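Can anyone check this?
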Amino acid sequence: TDKRLLEFEIYEAVYSMECIKKSCYALMAIGNSEISTLTDHQILVKMAILQEVNQSDAEIRQLLFDELLDYSLRESISKQTEGVRNVILANAFSRSRLIG
């Protein structure tokens, strides 16, 4: 086929599998991704770039790693604020008739 194929090795110690999946999903307009494990700690992402995409391989790599960083930060913030969210939700629902 004439499709450009890119491969990215990503360490799970840096980016979780969930972040990798979300990042690939965010770039579906650029290409189709296949995610597989290389080792216990390394993930391989193979991306078949759509023909109409004009970005260079380096630009696509940067887009992927920008998405990975974004989702990784969101994941960290979610973990850090989980306790506060739970208190707010518990307080909000304790005043409603949903729980009782």
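Reply from J.R.: I decoded it. The beta strands are 4-11, 31-37, 42-49.
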